[in-house]
Amino acid sequence: MAKSKALNVTLVRSPITFSARQKKTLTALGLRRMNQTVTRPDNPAVRGMIQKVIHLVKVEEAS
Known about the structure:
The chain contains 2 helices and 3 strands. The protein has one domain: CATH 3.30.1390.20. Helix content is 30%, strand content 25%. It is of the alpha+beta class. The two termini are 16 Å apart. The radius of gyration is 12 Å and the shape is globular. 16% of the residues are buried. It has a 3-stranded antiparallel sheet, with no helix packed on it.
């Protein structure tokens, strides 16, 4: 059975001064607090959300 790919997404910058749309994107990714890390599946929808807030997050492949 093949292992599905996943991404670890960490919030590294505060979204306070950014638009409400970007804040909602972070909420949709499951990020609420600074330095919080969530694991999300590697698919086009998640990649698109990450691309919109790439200046606020750090992305790594999950092991």
